[in-house]
Amino acid sequence: ERRDPGARTVTAPATGKADHSVAVAGFPFPFPKETYRYSTNVEPASVPRPTAAGSWGEHPVDIDHAYRDELAERARILSADPSRLQCLPHMVPAAWDAMFVLMEQLADAYPQHMSLTREGGGWHWHNGLLGIDRCFAVGETSSMPEGPLGFIGQQLQEDIVLLEQRDGELWADAGLVTFAADWSFGFDVGMSFLEIHGPVPRVHDEGVIPRAQAFLMRLEPGQSYRRTNWTLTVDGKLDTSTETYPEWGPDRTTLVDGPLAAVGDRLHLRTEVQHLIRLPESNAIMFLIRSYLLPFAALATVPEWAARTAEVLEELPADMAEYKGVTRTREAGIRWLREYGGVCEGSAAG
Ligand code: HEM
Description:
By secondary structure, the chain is α+β, with helices and mostly antiparallel strands. Helices cover 33% and strands 22% of the residues. The protein has one domain.
């Protein structure tokens, strides 16, 4: 069954409890195995991936029930901190390229709502979900005063980073990132792929990052791949970037010190679906990061997910847990899954 793009989360009238079924059906559950380790986990994009509760991954861009809420949140964050949108001068052509490809992908995925058509010497973009119509010519700033990334970023839930390939390396020289998980786009902009991954444990000795970069540099125009990453987040906050740490950091302590019963609604499994796309005109790499948040109470409606999550969290090595910032919250999550989530003590696989 196809989800209705732009629909709101439903509240079941009989119980007054949130009905998580829409979010669960489209949730990209990130644990294919009982243990989690870093790897160059890439696979071709646009292949739907069935899960125990539904499926995900049909398109590189995904509009779901949270569309309007997340776009409003992005607008709020951007107006408070314009450094979340940056484009170094040499990346302007790549930003136009990215906008155009994203419009094509949105129109391809949601033809009932979106279209990109030739009009006169330029183009006409239509987004029926938001009531947006815009005629523009690629590269003509007067037709896109908010800039190509600013314009398209108001219309999709994905964060965007653009990387230029030069001197045998990739450089993150442009992007629009409002939902970073414990990193700062403003700090990373202009840095190389290897520098950006500097703080990640294990991957350097294991060669994961140089291998990933070599793979990305070989991508052909139009090729798209994807991977997932995950963490735990409190209270469903999408903006857990370094800049706003004072706003979200203390939530971890109040979660751990608070009542166990509240953990099911407060603690969320956050999956990032990341797409890696070679842009055809500029040769830049477009990195899309889409963040999905699922409260543990919703996770527990799928027994396989509850058991697997407890298992992975329990086994996760301390250095990875520390880097991800889940050292204490994972313990609360495991306890909640055992007490309230139907996962048996001693045997996470239940
Ligand atoms: C973090 C791998 C592509 C930006 C990470 C982590 C891994 C990883 C394992 C640690 C995640 C965690 O534990 O939560 C990879 C692989 C890639 C890839 C295998 C490609 C195949 C990219 C690209 C960018 C990027 C294209 C764009 C700039 C980041 C950032 C972090 C990160 C900003 C957080 C670093 C920090 O703590 O400051 N990546 N990544 N990654 N990655 Fe990647």
